[in-house]
Structures
1.
Amino acid sequence: MIEVTRDVFRLAQVFTISRGSRTEAKVLTVRVTRDGVTGWGECVPYARYDETLESVEAQIRSLPDGIDRTALQEALPAGAARNAMDCALWDLEAKQAGCRVWELAGLEAPLPEVTAYTLSLDTPEVMQAQAAKNAHRPLLKIKLGTPDDMPRLEAVRAGAPDARIIVDANEGWSAEVYADLAPHLLRLGVALVEQPLPAGEDDALLGVDRPVPLCADESCHDRSSLPKLKGKYDMANIKLDKTGGLTEALALRDAARAEGYDVMVGCMVGSSLAMAPAVLVAQGAAITDLDGPLLLAEDRAHGLRFDEAGVHPSDPSLWG
């Protein structure tokens, strides 16, 4: 039996990127029950990829009850619906086998990974205050992508002088803007820029010097994306809601590394249930960005543990 429910998690504060603001995370939770055992997974439909709660729920409900992970890869395209089902099936298989998902997948036992903490887009003054409040964190991610980014970046660096900083432009720049900003990004110690240009326009990055490494986010969904990244990006951001689940995420990670890309593992804003499978993918990643639960005012029971070591692997009472 496949059950789909909608869940809403309040955010700890308004979360703003260049595309808009939100005060809650709306997710779909999938439960697959067979022979009295239930596995579950979570996805976050994303409007940027023409997904809605309704469209993703309809995709999931179209699946036959007995579908397995192998058939699922062909039944649904990469995206949120396949992610929730794939992760639910991994959880189900592990529970049926009496072992952990990482063992089923032939992986080493997972360890904590230091994760980025995201600062919402706001005025420079507010962002500096946010940075100062979170200056103890080793890695801060800044949401930018506007014509007034430099004052914000300067403010964050002033608020957190010792933190490592990465920037997410959310497709808001051009190649010329990146080239103009690059010396300042270097000066301020920015380690990485995510998706500076719109995904459909990033051929403009070909031949552009990249003194600050660039990471493909909206331009990288699954393994089929990799040929289009050559000469434009240094890193691939793997998100399970883009890959369509843990199965493809692990395959994309290995393929990206084989082609010389560093790996970042990111997330949409969701609960610990959505982050748990991604922690397995994030093992050894150059950048881990799985702070979704830290942005929530409420989380699932048995949520992931975050401390100075980073985000810890899930307890089996949550997932996997």
2.
Amino acid sequence: MNADKKTLLVTGGSRGIGAAICRQAGRAGYRVAINYVSDQAAAEALAAELEAAGSEAFAVKGDVGNEADVVAMFEAVDKAFGRLDAFVNNAGIVDVKARVDEMSAERVERMMRINVVGSFLCAREAVKRMSTRHGGKGGAIVNLSSAAARLGSPGEYVDYAASKGAIDTLTVGLAREVALEGIRVNAVSPGITETDIHASGGQPDRVARMQDLLPMKRAGTADEVASAVLYLLSDAASYITGAILNVSGGR
């Protein structure tokens, strides 16, 4: 184990954008903790892939919508790596297409618990470990927002869009709160991206249906989003905090 290497925790890291971030981080020399909530096989396969390529990686189970799970997840990283230098708040959900007047309280509560409360709790734990105020050595946090925060997602999932609007506000507020404590906080805001999150929301054809409406006439890829995340985590972005970077093909 190389204790001098920077360490990264990615929530929702077993698939899609999260997995792309983990792969790029491994190539960039990070030791990577891959959080998952249900697909243990995918997370462990990704960890094995990174290890085979010369990285240090491990999978850690945890539901970001559960405070005890969040605390246990960060403690597992402490035990495995002994430090935390970078954190990506990536885990999130969408629900099936619906209007606001069709949404149940349970649906909205679940959306906010996972996408908003979970992101706050994870950010809290990351700050506790990174902040010079808490004896840390600084670090970088990147939150995953969405173009939906700007567009509102009418007729599809305004609840999801609202949850990502909260992520934008968290990013700006937290960045200013910890700017003198060695921590940079930024967000990446993807547009239509080719991942299986659309299928999980009951719209597996959404990318094909939407891409002609985009200025670039194509969806983004998970790797294109991950590249933006890795940039914001890197020392090349040392004077950037509180920024929300649109990776949305001009949308």
3.
Amino acid sequence: MPVDPKAPVRISALNWVPVFAQGHVRDLRPRWALEEAGIPYAVRKLDVMAERPADYYEEQPFGQVPSYHDDTVSLFESGAIVLHIGRDCETLLPRDLAARARATTWLIAALNTVEPFLMQLATIDVFAAGEEWARLRRPGVIEMIDKRLARLSDALREKSYLDGERFTAGDLMMTTVLRSIDGKGLLDRYSNLVAYKARCQARPAFQAALAAQIADFEERESVRA
């Protein structure tokens, strides 16, 4: 669904980030979920270079993105938002209770079991680049990431998605997490994970969500130019 400034659903996003982060900011997650659910949404764009408006901390106590607001609820944290969007979207959270539980489990696993290790690498390579402690720590972080990827690969086996042949919110979240190590070559030894990630990213809803996020950045850059 296209972004609609008049839509009752609204998420927050940043109006610019450096090139390496474009397409990876976490508002991509609710954007993708909303596209899968066919729900139009508005965007509250925050100036990345300015202090957050005081009222924004009522939506997101830590000042981060994304936040989410509709006619009923206001919430934050991308996992919580995706689960909320999925409550009435069978594509994201199947009606069958066992399948819904598995989708929820994989979503939480992506955030709690896989992402923390991958984000350690981002800290080392981006925010601590050139520091001695980061150079010494990096091999250990790579080893931990590989162990997580190996377990994920074993769980996926030859299935199309984490729960079989059906895409769910668990796949949405896991794919966005795996994208954080794009360009590192760490997935390359796991052909099933490479194919899985490509399969999820080929979904029209993902492509629409990614394009919408990038468009917001491009708009800021054209204004600045």
